[in-house]
Structures are given as C-alpha cells and as structure tokens.
Design goal:
Blueprint: H1 2-17, E1 34-39, H2 43-57, E2 61-67, H3 71-81, E3 87-88, H4 91-98, E4 102-105, H5 112-121, E5 125-129, H6 136-149, E6 153-156, H7 163-173, E7 180-190, H8 193-196, H9 205-208, H10 211-214, H11 216-227, E8 231-239, H12 273-278, H13 283-286, E9 304-311, E10 316-325, E11 329-336, E12 339-345, H14 357-365, E13 375-382, E14 387-393, H15 397-400, H16 402-412, H17 426-445, E15 449-450
Parallel strand pairs: 1-2, 1-4, 2-3, 4-5, 5-6, 7-10
Antiparallel strand pairs: 7-11, 8-9, 8-15, 9-10, 11-12, 12-13, 13-14
Helix pairs in contact: 1-16, 2-3, 5-6, 6-17, 7-11, 11-17
Bound molecules: nicotinamide-adenine-dinucleotide.
Length: 464
C-alpha cells in the first residue's frame, strides 16, 4: 500500500506540472491511505470520481468527506459511491474537519473556482472536472491561488487519453504531414446529447459559460495538444436559433408537459430509475429540475457556434459546434507542409453504424469497461503519394476509453510512459477555456479577441 500511495503522489505532480515535480514536493504522509474529499455529488461526481474510484483504487485511497448543497442528493450519492464517510453542506468545515490530501471538484462549472481557490488556500492539492472555470476573472483568481499556495491543480481532461486521439497525436508528432499549417475541426452533437445541455444549468451562460466553455473546452484542449501551441487570437460567430425561445411551445417540465405527445424532444425521466433517485427525488430541496423544458425563455447560450483561432505558431483553426445534428460525431483535418491528415468518429455514412443515437450517448458515458473493439481509420495523405489508412483499435465506453486511462495513470500506474504528454495541468485548463471565453466575447463585441489580454499568461509558440 505504501508503494501504491507513493506512486499516486508522484502522479499528482506529473499530471499537474510535467516531469519536474519531485515527490518530496508533497507534504503527504506516505504510510496511510490518501484522504480524498469530493464536492458536488451529481452524476459525474458519484459515478466516475466516486463509485469508480472506490471500486478500482480502494487499496490506496479512502473518501473522508462528501459535500453538496442538496442534502438528499448528498445522502443518495454517499450510498451510491458505497462509503460511510461524513457528509457536509459546508465545504470549509469539511476540509477543516477531515484534513484531506486531495479535493475533487465536480460541482456545476460556475462554482469550480470557489472550491479550487479555497482548497488550494487550505493547503490541499485539487483535481477539478473540466472546464477549469467559466470566465477570465475566475481564471486569473485560480492562477493566483495556485501560485500562492504551492499546491497543485489537475484538470480532468479525459479526451486526450482515448487511443484514437492519442494515435492522431502520435502521427502529428511523428511529422507524418510536416509542419501543421491549418486545421478544420467540426463537432456534431445529436438531438439527444445536444438537447440534454438545454434541459438544465448548462443552458445559462452564467452557470456553464455556454457550450463554448462547457463543451468546447474538451475540443480546444485536444486541439492545443495536437497543434502543440497556444492560442493567440479568436474571432467567432454564434446564435441561438433552435432551442430556448425558438421552440414552437414550452411547458413546465417534460414529465408533466401538456405538449409531450407532439414534442420531438419529449424525454420520460420517470423511465430512468437512476435519474429519478439522483435528481427528481431531491427537487424539493433546491428546485433543480433535471427534465426541464429545452424551450425555456431563460436559455441564453448559443446552439450554433463557429470560430477562427490563430495560434502562436501561426496555425489557423476553423472550428464549429452544432447542437441539433441527426447524428453525433466529429471530423478533423490537418493540413501540413508535407500532406494532410484526416480523422473522424461516428459519422454514420462512413462506418456501418447500427447504434441508435440515444444509445450512443449512454455508451459514451458508460463506465462498465465492456466494449466494442472495432477499428477506426485515420487517413495520412502525403503530398504526391497515395493515401495511407492507419487503423486504430477502438473503445467507445467512458469517453472513448479516455476516462479509465486517465484514472489508471493517476492512481494505479503513474510509471506508464506518457511520451505524448497527455497529463494536463493548470496552464492547459486555462488555455482551453480562454478560447471559448474569447469566442463568447468576440460574438458580444464583433471583434477579434487577443488571448494575452484575458489573464497574465502570455501564450507561447509551443505549449507551456
Ligand atoms: N469530463 C467529462 O467528460 C465530464 C462529463 C460530465 C460532467 N463533467 C463535469 O462534471 C461537473 C458535474 O457535472 P454533473 O453532470 O454531475 O452536474 P450535476 O448538476 O448533476 O451535479 C453537480 C452537483 O453539484 C452540486 N452543487 C452545485 N453547486 C454547489 C455548491 N455551491 N456547493 C456544493 N455543491 C454544489 C449540485 O447540487 C449537484 O449535486 C461539471 O463541471 C461538468 O462539466 C465532465
């Protein structure tokens, strides 16, 4: 156990800041289990960062506290995770009384900064779910807090860890198309997954920072990593034309809606036992409605988004995000001085896709570890040559196999080589959210936005 815990401590350093942090930088005792607390017992907190940690890494860690503002969800979450630790509604009280080594933050996006800053200030390392935060002022406050605390912050970017995305990185880093000059990246959310963001807090800019931040932070992090540079300027367009006030009718919530028989987006939460137990049973405490109407007037985020991003190494990125596509999938193409690399996943016309679109989202979130093991192509086409098809063995569950690999690297085997630098720390978290924050500002002002004007971090020609 001693050895495993030591390995974990090592991996926190590696994940947070590259290969330079010695184990001695951490003040943990090495003879006991790692003491973990978690704030935000919603679906992500209790499943991926709760139950899964207990099932896979109980030999080196133990939950010593859980915190949420909703007492019903907190108690349900504790039982679901399968622990007997104390629960708290007051975060600082939890940290004071339990003295954790690591704080895991899985609250809604607009509140991440609060727990990151308090946690670092109280002398703990912190792991936060993406996105790091939702605006540039909170970003700067987090940067200042990490500098002042001497503790470490890890951002849980899982997409980098999927084998398909890693293969793209490997091919680009191996100079398969020469120096990258421009990139096209397009992500299509279907009418199940895309619509789900408009049913709850994600539909409000103040809560999730808009999908430019909440969702696109994943994409911008991948792009920053693939391109291996930092963004310098962003220009964007976006609008809300499908959901929100654009809907033909609106109701109270799906469950009780008078339009349920005519609404294509009707979702019967009462058929999902886990959703009922986790959310509906505890609405009385905080009014959090999980199956809210996605045509609510209050929705103010964009449902179509398009941006151009210029990188410090002169790469130009064309990016788009659609939220009501008939299928869920994505495409990327890299143009380079010596060729072009193309990759895509889940485009139904380009593979023998037989899965129902609602099943696809459930599989993406699935943590069971059972998988389809198909192979998917990446095309490398060098100038003046025929194209080559590189086949990548696939995993679909847990965000393309990324979820499991990220946790294994942290908790189980930090010695697994990571030649492509998949570990993400504060700077990666900042650079990915700043693109989305800049895009939002660009739409609001009609102007290009310089990344260097948003925080005191100066974007670098290569990733910092
Ligand atoms: N990496 C990924 O692929 C991935 C996937 C899903 C969610 N996430 C992230 O995980 C986080 C949680 O998402 P979710 O879907 O579980 O959301 P959720 O709304 O289901 O859960 C959030 C929980 O935080 C609690 N909460 C809100 N404000 C709080 C506060 N001030 N103090 C204490 N508790 C508070 C809520 O009561 C709720 O229980 C989000 O940041 C989201 O972006 C990441």
């Amino acid at each position: 156990m001693k050895n495993s815990r030591r390995k974990f401590l090592q991996s926190v350093g590696l994940l947070a800041a590259g290969m330079v942090i010695p184990i001695s930088a951490f003040g943990f005792e090495t003879s006991k289990k790692l003491k973990v607390v978690l704030v935000g017992t919603g679906v992500r907190g209790i499943s991926f960062w709760g139950k899964r940690l207990v099932e896979h890494y109980s030999d080196i860690l133990e939950f010593v506290g859980l915190c949420d503002i909703n007492p019903g969800r907190l108690e349900f979450g504790r039982k679901h995770i399968g622990v007997h630790c104390p629960t708290f509604s007051d975060f600082e009280k939890m940290v004071r009384e339990t003295g954790p080594d690591l704080i895991i933050v899985t609250t809604k996006d607009s509140t991440h900064h609060e727990f990151i800053i308090k946690g670092l200030g109280m002398g703990c390392d912190v792991l936060t779910e993406k996105p790091l935060t939702t605006d540039e002022n909170k970003c700067q406050a987090i940067i200042d807090a990490e500098r002042k605390s001497g503790k470490k912050l890890i951002v849980g970017f899982n997409y980098r860890w999927s084998p398909y995305n890693t293969k793209i990185k490997e091919l680009l880093a191996g100079n398969s198309i020469g120096k990258i000059t421009s990139v096209d990246f397009h992500w299509y959310l279907n009418t199940y997954h895309g619509a789900s963001y408009f049913r709850r807090w994600h539909g409000l800019k103040n809560e999730g920072g808009s999908l430019w931040v909440h969702k696109a932070t994943h994409h911008f992090d991948l792009l920053n990593w693939w391109i291996d540079s930092e963004p310098s300027e962003v220009f964007a367009y976006g609008d809300l034309e499908h959901y929100g006030a654009n809907g033909p009718f609106r109701g109270d919530k799906c469950r009780t809606c008078q339009h349920r028989s005519e609404c294509d987006y009707f979702w019967d939460i009462t058929k999902d036992n886990h959703m009922m137990r986790l959310y509906v049973d505890h609405e009385k405490y905080d009014g959090y409605i999980r199956d809210n109407c996605l045509f609510r007037d209050e929705i103010d985020i964009y449902d179509k988004m398009s941006a151009q991003v210029k990188y410090k190494n002169n790469v130009v990125l064309n990016y788009s995000l659609t939220t009501y596509s008939p299928f869920e999938g994505w495409r990327v193409a890299f143009n380079g001085t010596e060729g072009r690399l193309e990759a895509w996943l889940d485009i139904p016309y380009q593979r023998g896709e037989t899965l129902d679109q609602s099943e696809m989202h459930a599989l993406e979130m699935d943590q069971s570890g059972e998988d389809d093991k198909n192979q998917e192509p990446v095309i490398v086409h060098r100038l003046w040559k025929d194209f080559e098809t590189v086949k990548v063995p696939m995993e679909r569950g847990g965000h393309g196999g990324g979820d499991m690999r990220l946790q294994d690297k942290m908790f189980k085997n930090p010695d697994i080589p990571d030649p492509y630098g998949r570990a993400a720390g504060l700077r990666d978290g900042v650079m990915s959210v700043l693109i989305g924050i800049a895009a939002r500002k660009s739409i609001e002002t009609g102007l290009p936005i310089a990344i260097k004007d948003l925080t005191d971090l100066e974007p670098g020609e290569t990733r910092g």
